[in-house]
Amino acid sequence: MGKTPINYIEFKSTDLQITKTFYSSVFGWSFTDYGATYTAFTDSGVEGGFELTNEPITNGVLVVLHHTDLEVIKERVIAAGATISVDIFTFPGGSRFQFLDPSGNELAIWCESRS
Fold it and tell me: Terminus of the chain with fewer CB atoms < 10 Å: N or C?
């Protein structure tokens, strides 16, 4: 069985422009926008992104793991006692799902698109 590393971290943001200005000016992070509601960051030690939200931010960080087979890892996650919170969906470049661990922490697992 291979390891499943933390690959990406997602935060929530109530204002993407203010968020980008803050993190780029204070920490030197670089940003790439993906539409009006998402921006990805690099140059931080680990890649991640900010998703625009109008909701109050209570759990603002989503840790994203990487695995090469979403169906296999999804079944293992369920068998170990997790609950799927967002089923598998696609996005530009890949697919992912989100789950709640037995304590209620939400994480995601993604894989690249297969050509």
Answer: C
Q: Measuring CA to CA, which residue among 23, 28, 112 is closest to residue 64?
A: 112
Q: How far apart are CA 92 and CA 109, in angstroms?
A: 15
Nearest-angstrom CA–CA distance, 68 and 44? 24
DSSP 16: H
The whole-model pTM stands at 0.75
Kindly tell me the sign of the dihedral angle through the C-alpha atoms of 103, 104, 105, 111: positive
Instruction: Using only the alpha carbons of the chain, give its radius of gyration.
Output: 15
Mean pLDDT of the 98-106 span = 87
